[in-house]
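During the no-cost extension, the postdoctoral fellow (Dr. R.K.) reprocessed legacy sequence entries with the updated structure-token encoder. One reprocessed record is reproduced below for audit purposes.
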Amino acid sequence: MSESNEAVEHGTSRTRGDTHTLHWVLHLSHPVRDVWAAVATPEGLPGWLAAADVLEPRLGGAVTLRWLNTPDPAVAVHSGRVTAWDPDVVAEYSIDLHGRCRFHLEPAGTGRSTLRFTNELVSDDSFRRDCLAGWHHHFEFLVDALAGRPKDWSTWSADRWSELRSQYD
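Re-encoded structure tokens follow.
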């Protein structure tokens, strides 16, 4: 098991009707400024999540994320707006596929931080489980990226995602 697999605990979810709220708390051995750079900048996002083809860093700004594990733009490209922005504290994007994605950072001692992530989306239960596995997998990539090992998307396979998906059933 890699370092990233050990560091990321399973997320939780709460459902009301067809609205799902997914949640993670990650305790990271990196300062807020480094985590912020990874979750809220066009330079940091591709190392663990997606290319930020557009990211206007302000409330109401446009955002277009392009997932790098598929070449099909119909599946890979999703757009929306920045729905909360407080530098080094909160970055929140609402995008067409994943709904509201909120990253909330707080210092947790010298050189450490806590990332609280919430994803609120409207979907069926199968997609909820897909997203639980997907975010979990991406957070493993985040841990690696923060350690200086950004994801090489040419090596991506669905194997780990499938393993996680079975754990979220």
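The chain has five helices and eight strands. The CA atoms of residues 133 and 165 lie 5 Å apart. The remaining legacy entries will be reprocessed before the final report is submitted.
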